[in-house]
Amino acid sequence: MIDHQNTIVVIPARMASKRLPGKPMADINGTPMIVHVWRRAQEANVGHVLVAAAEAEIANAVRVAGGDAIVTDAKLASGSDRVAAALALRDQKQQYAHVVNIQGDLPTIDPLAVQRCLAGLTNPGVDISTIAAEITAGAERDNPNIVKAIAPLSSTREVAFARDFVRDLAPGTPPPWWHHIGIYAYHRAALERFVALPPSARERERSLEQMRALDNGMKIAVVRVDSVPLGVDTQADLERARNLLKDVA
Questions:
Q1: How confident is the model at residue 249 (pLDDT cuts 50, 70, 90)?
Q2: What are the C-alpha distances in Å from 71 to residues 59, 79, 83?
Q3: Strand-pair category, 128-135 with 220-225
Q4: Nearest of 58, 79, 54 to residue 68 by alpha carbon
Q5: What share of the chain is helix, strand, coil (3-state, %, to 5)?
Q6: Which of 56, 114, 149, 247 has the lowest tally of Cβ within 10 angstroms?
Q7: Structure pTM?
Q8: Count of helices and strands (H, E) across the chain
Q9: Cβ(98)–Cβ(47) under 8 Å?
Q10: Is residue 235 part of a domain?
Q11: How many Å separate Cα 1 from the centre of its chain?
Q12: How many domains, the chain?
């Protein structure tokens, strides 16, 4: 069991999105998107929730909603770096032993998926846990923007070690195929080691940060979940989110 008193959920967020600038503050039915993500994380009830903002505007919106937020250096290279920086600022006494990183553009994330991601850390030898849902549509299988987790999951196997993460499946790869969802749970020491490592060759080649962990011998557990949350990257995604969340606080 993971002690939730020793767990923190950190949501990194920045305004400088290339495809949808300012998206953490994008209005979804009267509420900024980052507040929706914060609320879903709260509903997961796995530990304290902290928004790690690159700009004060984001942090202030979360605080107005009753949440906790901290402003970090806007120049940090990645969400993982922002999570680690926020943790170093907020928890210098090392209270939190487990860290969950939830992307700030997942306003429809299922709180149960967050719980399952964290639970993946209970498996022996795991450094990092993440989640994936089965791909059932050919369009998803063939879309290079959808990252695939290569792991021996099945209808009867809920957790397996990641063997690889790819954008394009090799020709003839048989199902099941697994849509990787960018939520991670770390043992704190693993997070600190990960952000201290230089980017690996495969990470740079694929633009997939998790390859750095695999390329340095870190063990990633992939936990099967039932559905993929909507990631908001474009104006069309934002309109979908507004429709999906029209009856959600």
A1: low
A2: 6, 13, 11
A3: parallel
A4: 58
A5: 35, 25, 40
A6: 247
A7: 0.95
A8: 9, 12
A9: yes
A10: no
A11: 21
A12: 2
